[in-house]
Design goal:
The complex is a heterodimer. Chain A is an alpha/beta fold. Helices cover 39% and strands 23% of the residues of chain A. In chain B, the strands form 9 sheets. Chain B has an 8-stranded mixed beta sheet with strand order 19-18-20-21-27-26-25-23, sandwiched between helices. A 7-stranded mixed beta sheet of chain B has the order 28-34-33-30-31-32-29, with no helix packed on it. In chain B, strands 6-5-4-7-10 form a 5-stranded mixed beta sheet, sandwiched between helices. Classes of the chains: A alpha/beta, B alpha+beta. Chains A and B meet through strand 9, strand 10 and helix 9 of A and strand 2 and helix 2 of B.
Chain lengths: 318, 628
C-alpha cells in the first residue's frame, strides 16, 4: 500500500530551477518560484503539525477485512460479531471490536468555479482559487491519490483527467493556468453533470465564491446525495462587501446582466455589508449543519496561511 | 410691503416661468452611472427592504423640490426689492452742509475742526436708512454740491474726501437757499449743518432765508475759542515819495483770555519791524506804521504767541499785502507847446515825459512803450493802443463825438467820486469857449455844463485802454491858473496806471475779484499761493474770479504778469468760539436724530442671505442623500 509520508513531502523538491523556468515560461506567473517555495514550506509545516494526529496517514481504519491490526474500539450494536476480540473479552470482560488498516485508493476532485464573478475586481479571486487548487492538488498527488480538476459555470466546462504521482503536478499547473472565467453560475446543474460523469466516489473539493443565483445549496446537496464527500473552500473577497459606490447608480450583475437602480448612501452601504456578511454566514451555517467541511478563503489571508487552515480544519488530510 | 424693484406681476411671471423650468428639470429622469457588481441578488435583498419605504422616499424628493422652489421664490422676491411701506413713507431727503470756512481750520479738536466735521458726517451717512437719500455740499464763500442726491453710502463717504478748508468766510444764506431749493416739494426734507456755528446771520440782500417745513439740524464742531488774528492789513506808498510807504493793520483777540503776542512785519521776506503786544479779551488793536522803507514789493504781517505756542486758528495769524508797483510812468505829450501842461507834469518826479510835435507823433508812438499819451489840442486819426488824455479833441479820431460849440461852459456838475477828478475844486473854473462831448454807452461823464446837459469832461475805455477827454482848450480858460490843473493831469495819469488812492494792497478772500488785464485777451492764467494754476476768464479787461485762499497770486495774460495778495481779514471769522445752535428764520436749529448706524433696512439683502442658506442646506441634504 503506497502511503503518504509528510517526511517524504518535506524532502521532495519537485520545483527544481529548470522545472520552474519551464513553468514560468507560460503566460501566467501564478505558480512561480515564490509559490513553489511556499508549497515546500507548507509541506514541512504540515508534517510537524499533524505528525501525531495523523498516525494512519493515508490509510483508512475499518473494522473487518484488513491485514494489519490497527486498533480497538467499543462494540456497538450492529457490528459484525466476527470482529469481536474474544481474548480481550476474556481478560477484561469488555466487548471490543478489532480494527484493521486498509489501504484506500482515494479520488480527489477539485471543482473550480470558473464563472464570471470569480474574475470580478481584477480576477484576484480566480487567481487565489487556482493557487488553492494547485496546493491541495500537490498534496493529493504526493499522496498518490487520484487527482482530477474540473471547472464549472452552469455546467462542467473543462476537465483534467484523473492522474496520480507527484510528477504530474505540472500538468495540473498547465491546466489551471489555462482556465478563464466566464458565464453564469449554476452549481446545481453543473454538479449533476459532474456526478454523472464521475462514478468513482471520493473527495469533492468545491472552490467557489458561491455566488449562485439558483442557490448555493443545490450543488453541495447534489454531491452529498451522490455519496461524494464535499469539502467547501469558500473564496471571499472582503472588498466586495464594501463596494466603492456613491450616489445614483445602475448596478448590473456581471454574470446575468440583471440591472437595478440604486441610490447608494452610507446607510445603504452599511446594509449591503450586513447582507454580505449574512450571506457568508448562511453558507457556513449550512455546511456546519450538514457536516460538510467548510473553509473560508478570504483574500485578506495570505495564501499559505489559508492552506494551513485547511489542514487544521481536517477532512482533507487523513 | 411694497416692491421698489420689479412689480408683483413681473415677479409672478418670472417665478412661474422659472418654477416651470425647475419642475421640468425635476421630472427628467436622472441619468445614472452604470456599475457592475459580482452578485446582484445581494442588492435585491437590501432594496426589498428599502422599497418598503418608497412612500417616504417620494416625500423626500418632494421636499427637495420644495427646497428648490423656495430658493427660487427668495431670489425672485429679492428682484422685487421689497420694502416695508412705512419705511418708504418715512424715507428722508437730507442736505448736509459741511462748513469749510476759515474757522474750520481751527485745531482745538485734533487734527482740525474740518476733519472732525467729516467724521460727524460719516457717522450720519452710516446711519442712513434704506429709503433715505442724502446730498453733501461744501459750504464756504460758495456752495458746492459734492455729488448727486443718493442713498449710496459708499459714494457719499467718497465725496467727503474732497471737502477741503478755505481761507474765506462761509456764505450761510446762499447755502441755505441752495438747500431749500433742493428740498422744495419734498415731504421729509432735512438740512443738517455741520459747523462751528460762526456763520453769521441767515439773511442776505434778498432778506432772511425761510426754511418752511424743512427741518434744520445742527452738528456742533469744536470746543476752543483762543485766537488772536490779523483783521486788517493795508499798505500804500506816499504819492510824492514812492520809495516810502505806510502800513495800517489791526489785531483782534477773539478769545476769552488776555494774550501776549509778537507781531512781525516782513518786507520782501525780511524783518522790518518786531513788536510785542498784549491784547485783552475782545480787544481790537489798530497799529499804524508811517514812513517805512526798505521793501519794494511784498509785505507780510505775522503774529505768534510769546510763549511759542499756537492759538486755535493759525489761518488768521498771517496776512499779506503788495505795495503798488514802483516805476517811472512814461508819458508822451503831443503838443505844439503848452507851458501849463509841461509845468504840471514837472510836479511829479516819477514821470518820464517826452514832448513831441504832432508831426513826429506817428514815429514816437510806434517806437515807445508808453504808459499814457496826452494830446494837447491835436487828435490823431487813429486811436492809440495806450491810455490817453485828450485836451480839446476834434475830428473822427476823438474817442467821443465832439458836438456843438458851447459859450462859456462851466463845471455845473462833476463826478467827485471818479479818481481823475476826486478832491478837485472845479465849480468856479471859467472857460471862454468849449465843445459839447457826446459820450458812448459805458462812458462816464466827469463834468458837464449847462446844468449837466452838456458834458465837457468824459472818461471811458476804448479797446481795453482808458481815456479822459476834456472838451475845451485849457489855454482858453483859467484852469491852468488853479491848483486843480496839475492835480487833474496827475490824477488822470495815476488813474491810467492804477496808482491812485484806491489801490488795493490786498483782496479779501471770499469776494469776487476783478483784476485788470491789459490787451484784448479773453482768458488769463492764475497761479495760486499753493502753486497750482487755473485759467480764469477775462471780462471787459478784467480777470474775474472768486478767491478763497490767502497769499500771493500771480495772474498771467500774454506777456503781462500781475501779482496781487489776498487775505481773510474777517473779525467774525476769527471769532471761533463754537455756537450751540444756529438761528434761521427766527428759529433755533435742532439736534440731529435718527441717524444711528445699524443694520440697513433693505430686505433684499436678507432674502439673498436666506437663499444662500437654503443653497447650503440643499447641498448638504443632497450630498447626505437626505433629499434623494
Amino acid at each position: 500500500m503506497p502511503g503518504f509520508s509528510l517526511g517524504a513531502l518535506a524532502s521532495w523538491r519537485p520545483f527544481a530551477r529548470g522545472e520552474n523556468k519551464r513553468v514560468q515560461s507560460g503566460d501566467d506567473d501564478l505558480f512561480d518560484d515564490e509559490f513553489q517555495r511556499k508549497l515546500d514550506y507548507l509541506a514541512l509545516v504540515s508534517r510537524r503539525v499533524f505528525a501525531g494526529r495523523l498516525r494512519a496517514e493515508r490509510r483508512t481504519k475499518k473494522s473487518g477485512s484488513g491485514v494489519e491490526f490497527a486498533d480497538h474500539r467499543d462494540y456497538q450494536p450492529g457490528d459484525d460479531f466476527r470482529y469481536l476480540d474474544w481474548n480481550v473479552y476474556q481478560r477484561f470482560d469488555k466487548l471490543l471490536v478489532r480494527l484493521f488498516e486498509e489501504e484506500e485508493d482515494l479520488a480527489i476532485y477539485f471543482i473550480l468555479d470558473a464563472s464570471a464573478s470569480m474574475s470580478f475586481g481584477g480576477g484576484e479571486k480566480l487567481r487565489y482559487a487556482k493557487k488553492v487548487c494547485a496546493a491541495l492538488a500537490y498534496v493529493g498527488l504526493a499522496n498518490l491519490d487520484r487527482v482530477s480538476i474540473v471547472t464549472t459555470t452552469d455546467r462542467v466546462m473543462d476537465r483534467m483527467p484523473e492522474t496520480r504521482g507527484k510528477a504530474r503536478i505540472f500538468k495540473a499547473f498547465r491546466f489551471l493556468r489555462e482556465i478563464r472565467s466566464e458565464g453564469t453560475t449554476d452549481l446545481g446543474d453543473a454538479m449533476k453533470t459532474f456526478v454523472a460523469q464521475n462514478k468513482r466516489r471520493g473527495l469533492a473539493v468545491l472552490v467557489s465564491d458561491l455566488y449562485d443565483s439558483h442557490g448555493f445549496e443545490k450543488g453541495i446537496n447534489v454531491l452529498r446525495y451522490n455519496k461524494f464527500d464535499p469539502f467547501v473552500v469558500h473564496v471571499v473577497d472582503p472588498a466586495e462587501a464594501k463596494p466603492k459606490l456613491h450616489g445614483d447608480v445602475l448596478v448590473y450583475d456581471c454574470e446575468t446582466g440583471e440591472e437595478r437602480e440604486v441610490t447608494v448612501t452610507a446607510k445603504v452601504l452599511a446594509r449591503f455589508a450586513e447582507a454580505h456578511a449574512h450571506y457568508v454566514a448562511e453558507i457556513e451555517r449550512f455546511c456546519a449543519t450538514r457536516q460538510v467541511p467548510y473553509v473560508r478563503a478570504s483574500l485578506e489571508v495570505p495564501f499559505d496561511e489559508m492552506i494551513l487552515r485547511v489542514f487544521r480544519r481536517g477532512g482533507f488530510l487523513r | 410691503m411694497i416692491f421698489a424693484g420689479l412689480s408683483l406681476a413681473q415677479l409672478a411671471a418670472i417665478f412661474g416661468a422659472a418654477g416651470f423650468g425647475v419642475l421640468v428639470l425635476y421630472i427628467l429622469k436622472l441619468r445614472r452611472r452604470v456599475v457592475a457588481v459580482p452578485f446582484s441578488p445581494l442588492w435585491e435583498r437590501i432594496l426589498r427592504d428599502k422599497e418598503a419605504t418608497t412612500l417616504f422616499s417620494k416625500l423626500k424628493r418632494v421636499l427637495s423640490l420644495l427646497l428648490q422652489l423656495a430658493l427660487l421664490a427668495l431670489l425672485v422676491l429679492a428682484l422685487g426689492d421689497p420694502r416695508a411701506a412705512e419705511s418708504v413713507l418715512k424715507g428722508r431727503t437730507v442736505v448736509v452742509l459741511v462748513d469749510a470756512s476759515a474757522s474750520m481750520q481751527a485745531t482745538d479738536v485734533a487734527p482740525s475742526r474740518l476733519a472732525a466735521a467729516k467724521d460727524e458726517v460719516r457717522s450720519i451717512v452710516r446711519g442712513l436708512g434704506g429709503a433715505d437719500r442724502m446730498l453733501v455740499a461744501q459750504m464756504d464763500a460758495m456752495i458746492t454740491p459734492l455729488g448727486p442726491m443718493t442713498s449710496d453710502t459708499s459714494a457719499l463717504e467718497r465725496e467727503l474726501d474732497s471737502v477741503h478748508a478755505t481761507d474765506a468766510r462761509a456764505d450761510f444764506p446762499r447755502a441755505l437757499r441752495f438747500a431749500t431749493d433742493v428740498l422744495r416739494g419734498v415731504d421729509q426734507g432735512e438740512v443738517v449743518v455741520v459747523s462751528d456755528g460762526a456763520l453769521g446771520e441767515a439773511a442776505d440782500s434778498s432778506g432772511p432765508v425761510h426754511l418752511g417745513n424743512t427741518k434744520l439740524s445742527f452738528v456742533r464742531v469744536g470746543k476752543g475759542a483762543d485766537n488772536v488774528g490779523v483783521t486788517q492789513f493795508s499798505v500804500r506808498r506816499y504819492p510824492l515819495d514812492k520809495s516810502r510807504y505806510e502800513v495800517m493793520l489791526e489785531l483782534t483777540n477773539t478769545g476769552p483770555a488776555a494774550e501776549d503776542v509778537e507781531l512781525q512785519l516782513l518786507g520782501d521776506g525780511a524783518l522790518v519791524d518786531l513788536t510785542k503786544l498784549r491784547l485783552q479779551p475782545g480787544e481790537r488793536l489798530p497799529r499804524f506804521y508811517p514812513q517805512l522803507s526798505g521793501a519794494s514789493r511784498t509785505l507780510e504781517a505775522k503774529i505768534a504767541r510769546v510763549d511759542g505756542t499756537h492759538d486755535d486758528l493759525p489761518a488768521d495769524d498771517h496776512a499779506y499785502a503788495l505795495l503798488p508797483e514802483h516805476r517811472r510812468a512814461r508819458v508822451l505829450v503831443v503838443t505844439d507847446g503848452n507851458t501849463y501842461l509841461e509845468a504840471a507834469l514837472l510836479l511829479d518826479e516819477y514821470l518820464d515825459v517826452t514832448d513831441v510835435a504832432p508831426r513826429a507823433y506817428p514815429d514816437a508812438i510806434a517806437k515807445g512803450d508808453w504808459d499814457a499819451v496826452i494830446f494837447d489840442r491835436v487828435t490823431p486819426a487813429e486811436r492809440p493802443r495806450v491810455h490817453a488824455l485828450y485836451l480839446d479833441p476834434r475830428g473822427p479820431g476823438s474817442p467821443v463825438h465832439v458836438a456843438e460849440e458851447l459859450k462859456q461852459p462851466g463845471f455845473d456838475k462833476f463826478d467827485r467820486r471818479h479818481p481823475a477828478v476826486r478832491f478837485l475844486a472845479l465849480e468856479d473854473v471859467n472857460v471862454a469857449v468849449g465843445h459839447k462831448l457826446v459820450p458812448e454807452t459805458g462812458d462816464r461823464v466827469l463834468g458837464a455844463a449847462e446844468g449837466g446837459a452838456a458834458p465837457i469832461l468824459v472818461a471811458g475805455v476804448r479797446g481795453g485802454y482808458k481815456f479822459v477827454a476834456l472838451g475845451f482848450d485849457v489855454s482858453a480858460s483859467d484852469l491852468p491858473l488853479r491848483t486843480a490843473w496839475p492835480l487833474f493831469v496827475l490824477d488822470c495819469i495815476n488813474w491810467f496806471s492804477d496808482e491812485d488812492a484806491q489801490y488795493l494792497s490786498s483782496f479779501r478772500t471770499g469776494d469776487v475779484w476783478r483784476i485788470p488785464v491789459a490787451g484784448g485777451l479773453a482768458q488769463a492764467t492764475l497761479k495760486r499761493p499753493d502753486g497750482t494754476s487755473q485759467p480764469v476768464p477775462v471780462h471787459e479787461g478784467r480777470a474775474v474770479l472768486l478767491g478763497q485762499q490767502a497769499g500771493f497770486y500771480e495772474l498771467s495774460a500774454g506777456e503781462q504778469t500781475t501779482t496781487f495778495a489776498a487775505n481773510l481779514l474777517d473779525a467774525s471769522e476769527s471769532a471761533i468760539a463754537p455756537q450751540d445752535a444756529v438761528v434761521v428764520d427766527g428759529k433755533p436749529s435742532g439736534t440731529v436724530d435718527g441717524f444711528r448706524a445699524g443694520v440697513r433696512r433693505e430686505i433684499w439683502i436678507y432674502l439673498l442671505l436666506a437663499a444662500a442658506l437654503l443653497t447650503v442646506l440643499e447641498w448638504a441634504t443632497y450630498h447626505r442623500r437626505v433629499t434623494v
